[in-house]
Amino acid sequence: MMKVKRDLFLNRLMARRFNGMVKVITGLRRCGKSYLLGILYKEYLISLGVSPDHIVEVALDEPENYKLHNPLKLDAYLKSKIKDDGEYYVFIDEVQFVKRVKVKDPALKAPDEITFYSVINALMRRHNVDVYVTGSNSKMLSSDIRTEFRGRGDEVRLTPFTFAEFMQTFGGDARDAWDEYVVYGGMPLAVFAKGHEAKSLYLKGLFEETYIKDVVERNAIRKPECLGDVLDVLASSVGSLTNSVNLENTFRTMKRTAIKAKTLDSYIAKLGRAFLVEEARRYDIKGRKHIGALRKYYFADLGLRNARLGFRQIEETHLMENAIFNELKAQGFDVDVGIVDVFEKNGAGSGIRKQLEIDFVANRGRERFYVQSALSIDDPEKAVQERRPFGHVGDSFRKIIVVKGKMPLRIDDSGYAIVGLIDFLLDSNAVLGANR
Predict the structure, then answer these.
(1) Does residue 375 surpass a pLDDT of 90?
(2) How many other C-beta atoms are found inside a 10 Å radius of the C-beta of residue 353?
(3) Domains of the chain (ranges, CATH numbers)
(4) Three-state secondary structure string covering 314-327
(5) How far apart are CA 77 and CA 147, in angstroms?
(6) Do the Cβ atoms of 280 and 336 come closer than 8 Å?
(7) What is the 3-state secondary structure (H, E, C) of 339-360?
(8) CB burial readout 378-393, b (16+ within 10 A) else e
(9) How far apart are alpha carbons 138 and 154 in whole angstroms?
(10) DSSP helix/strand/coil, 217
(11) What distance in Å separates the CA atoms of residue 259 and residue 245, rounded to the nearest whole number?
(12) CB-facing half-sphere around the CA of 374: CA atoms within 13 A
């Protein structure tokens, strides 16, 4: 298997080296967390002159390390590896396997509990130790990083291969690469599999044997078939506004199944914690606030989404939008669906109030970009439709229309940026950097 540079994420680890915090690498299972940390980052450290015996690696999903699932044994093992005052780097892979252990102390009114966090927080008291952990279960990690690591948790979210990373493996024309990527996505082992059958079997197996099984077991879900139905509905409605009430009605009318909105919200949250899907909330641009319960949901990987539906619904409009969302998230943006309220007068002097939608409002620190996704704007009516919401925003942040295919960035007469999807995905920072 060829080596793929993942500099976008590697640079984030490099920038955090010995920053006094625990680096927590999270993301979808099988998206390459172990490869990023144990190969790419390790090679970087060795290139700096770090001795390999000062890099302590523990892969908790390996059978020979099962005994280290006990946090007390893990603590003893790590301490035994740190033998001097030199700088040590500790890599702990798949930390969700560490159990919680009750330790009865007569001085305490109740049994104390030793957890993985206890081990790491103790390790962080050593001035010469830099700690990195990976995990796939954000219920254990993302939601607890700020509290359990006592303000010393620093999350780095990893995604499947971006399109630019995928191109390193393709060795052909970028247009042909997109035709492959939009169907099979960027899960590393799917990328390197040969032919539709191998890719399809791998992606479908990931869903059934890994993701769904994990979510069901960790959350004690009694009706896994309902969780599968929720996934199917979300996969079919990528890029469409919905909420749990609408989904409840969908299940009642189309699936002939009664699932309460509250239960659906819970299922979707669990899928989000497993990094399978992510939501984009509606944001009132002029009111500067999130509004309503409607959401759009996007899949972390196009191939996984397509595999879930048996590769039957490859609608490029929606998948192109999903790919743009994923690219913005990989670049570190918070992404919302933009809403602009407008009042349009009619010939009689009265008028109506409308809400115009901008596909994405992307924020990163002080940066902001507005992005529309369109297969084409060659038709004058379609061009007006895509540009129209931009004219009502009322600020000077860059406004971008991404169209299918290859098209170098250009600025139209209204000052809006027009760029091809492939150009955007291959170098989104260049497109977005034009705002600086």
Answers:
(1) yes
(2) 8
(3) 7-157 (3.40.50.300), 163-277+297-307 (no CATH)
(4) CCHHHHHHHHHHHH
(5) 25
(6) yes
(7) EEEEEEECCCCCEEEEEEEEEE
(8) eeeeebeebbebbeeb
(9) 13
(10) helix
(11) 10
(12) 22
Closest CA to 281 of 179, 357, 190: 357
Q: What pLDDT, in 10s, does the model give residues 125-158?
A: 999 999 999 977 644 555 566 567 767 889 999 9
Tokens representing 410 are 């250009």
User: Residue 27 carries which side chain, given as an amino acid letter?
Assistant: G
Q: Which residue, chain included where needed, has tokens 């002939």?
A: 256
**pLDDT per residue over 73-83, tens digit each?**
999 999 999 99
- Gyration radius of the chain's alpha carbons: 24
Instruction: Identify whether the C-beta of residue 327 lies closer than 8 Å to the C-beta of residue 424.
Output: yes
Q: What is the pTM of this model?
A: 0.93
Tokens standing for 248?
Answer: 């409840």
Write down the residue that tokens 């004219």 correspond to: 391
Torsion of CA 390, 396, 397, 403, to 10 degrees: 40
The dihedral formed by the CA atoms of 206, 209, 215 and 218, expressed in degrees to the nearest 10: -140
- Amino acid, single-letter form, for residue 315: E
